[in-house]
Backbone:
């Protein structure tokens, strides 16, 4: 068990922590020099020596650690993690009972009281993603808790942190149980996805877009031509095709997107030959589409927050207005643009402003049809709005 360290919080930060703000910042602590190692359990006190909360030290983006408990006597052991997990599993009860969807998130970091760790479920397999060395120090207790509270086929992991030379012998991917077939076929609202649990950082689908995909299939795709940009494995295209779109065009820079997207169509018995899958820079493709006078009834925009390609860097906060302008120009009047971002750097308000600016600069008119943020299984805290990073807006182009 790691040592516990008592720390003093600067007066300006006490209130936020008392009210449940979960991310511990470096600036908020007086005597940081006492902390030597990630994974240390921290007891935070106010200036009068009154206990505030228990946290752990793990370096992640802007943060120095995450709150764990408001009880001073709480032991951070496998019983503690079992308690957190049981309540996380209970919160997803309806997902476990739904036979049409067999892939979802079971623990969403700080939203479930365990910042720095997510756990996803893929038809009986559990995938843990560790976001700091600090949380990884609790691996054996957390695994013990997971094994005690679930019936699992197998357990996998991804390490998303710099281990600073530690744990280099502990590989990513398979931990215990039986190994998953490659791929395993999971279901999302009755649509199949081929998932690879041991093939690099990403498994093939981003679960946080589930409600958006369903909406595209059920309400928007019928008889529409659909352009899916930054398409990765083509998840939006699959749902559009199953919703009756006349044709989908998927565009992604990564070479692997072609076989990956082909596979997702095939596992859903969709005729791939009737779909276009294009390996290209989206910005090149926009130029091509304009030159060829191509127009689409629906354009999906789902860029990464930040990407560097040979020719350019793309940053959602700087370049989204331009991206929208490109899309608007190749969308039919009356068509729909699905604008999505997972950037935590700006709010839904700012995103709405990007949309307004893009149309204004082109002298266009639009109407917002619906908006989405994270789905229920991606649980977030009211006190930590940054945790709700996903913003998706369905926009109708009127002019
Ligand atoms: N929309 C996808 C997820 C997108 S992930 C889904 O729903 O599953 C981001 C993708 O953008 C990656 O696959 C990456 O290869 C691609 N990408 C990044 N920059 C790009 C660019 N300039 N042109 C085309 N694709 C790009």
Residues:
């Amino acid at each position: 068990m790691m040592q516990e360290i008592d720390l003093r919080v600067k007066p300006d930060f006490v209130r936020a922590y008392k009210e449940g703000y979960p991310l511990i910042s470096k600036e908020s602590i007086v005597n940081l020099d006492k902390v030597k190692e990630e994974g240390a359990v921290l007891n935070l006190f106010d200036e009068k020596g009154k206990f505030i909360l228990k946290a752990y030290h793990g370096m992640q983006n802007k943060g120095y650690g995450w709150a764990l408990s408001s009880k001073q006597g709480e032991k951070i052991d496998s019983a503690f993690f079992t308690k957190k997990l049981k309540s996380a599993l209970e919160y997803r009860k309806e997902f476990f009972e739904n036979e049409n969807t067999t892939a979802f998130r079971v623990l969403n970091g700080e939203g479930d009281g365990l910042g720095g760790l997510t756990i996803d479920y893929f038809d009986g397999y559990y995938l843990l993603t560790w976001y700091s060395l600090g949380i990884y120090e609790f691996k054996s207790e957390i695994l013990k808790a997971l094994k005690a509270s679930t019936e699992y086929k197998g357990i996998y992991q991804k390490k998303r942190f710099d281990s600073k030379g530690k744990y280099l012998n502990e590989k990513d991917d398979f931990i215990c149980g039986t190994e998953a077939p490659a791929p395993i076929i999971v279901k999302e609202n009755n649509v199949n996805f081929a998932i690879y649990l041991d093939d690099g950082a990403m498994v093939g689908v981003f679960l946080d877009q589930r409600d958006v995909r369903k909406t595209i299939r059920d309400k928007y795709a019928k008889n529409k031509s659909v352009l899916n940009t930054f398409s990765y494995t083509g998840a939006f295209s699959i749902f559009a095709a199953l919703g009756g779109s006349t044709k989908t065009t998927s565009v992604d820079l990564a070479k692997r997107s072609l076989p990956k997207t082909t596979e997702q169509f095939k596992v859903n018995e969709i005729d791939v030959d009737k779909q276009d899958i294009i390996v290209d820079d989206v910005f090149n493709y926009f130029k091509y589409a304009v030159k060829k006078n191509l127009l689409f009834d629906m354009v999906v925009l789902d860029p990464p927050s930040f990407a560097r390609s040979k020719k350019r860097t793309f940053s959602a906060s700087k370049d989204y207005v331009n991206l929208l302008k490109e899309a608007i120009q190749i969308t039919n009047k009356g068509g729909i643009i699905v604008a999505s971002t997972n950037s935590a750097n700006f709010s839904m308000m700012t995103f709405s402003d990007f949309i307004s600016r893009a149309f204004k600069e082109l002298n266009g008119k639009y109407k917002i049809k619906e908006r989405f943020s994270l789905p229920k299984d991606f649980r977030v805290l009211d006190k930590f709005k940054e945790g709700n990073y996903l913003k998706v807006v369905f926009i109708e182009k009127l002019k």
Remarks:
- The mean pLDDT is 96.
- Residues 228 and 250 are 5 Å apart (CA to CA).
- The chain has three domains: 4-69, 78-182, 206-397.
- The first strand starts at residue 4 and ends at 8.
